[in-house]
Write a structure and sequence with these properties.
With 67 residues, the protein is α+β, with helices and mostly antiparallel strands. It has one domain. The protein has two helices and four strands, in the order H-E-E-E-E-H. A four-stranded antiparallel sheet has the order 1-2-3-4, with no helix packed on it. It starts with a helix and ends with a helix. The mean pLDDT is 84.
Length: 67
């Protein structure tokens, strides 16, 4: 039971370093699930939805820097 420890004690999140300061991605050092923060500052599971969201922001900011 890989996730049992996380279920009992909670995830041990560490920040995955990203170049963009606006986007924060976390990874649990125990179960290696990925998490991120939503618009309300809550930790949420990093899903395909967020991946797309982050890609959008990344492209958006890159365009701003280049223009
Ligand atoms: Zn975990």
């Amino acid at each position: 039971m890989k996730h049992l420890r996380c279920k009992i004690r909670g995830h041990n999140l560490s920040l995955v370093s990203k170049q963009l300061i606006h986007i924060k991605e976390y990874e649990c050092t125990h179960c290696h699930q990925k998490f991120t923060k939503d618009g309300y500052g809550r930790i949420v599971k990093f899903t395909r939805y967020w991946e797309k969201n982050h890609e959008f922001f990344q492209n958006h900011f890159q365009k701003q820097i280049l223009s």
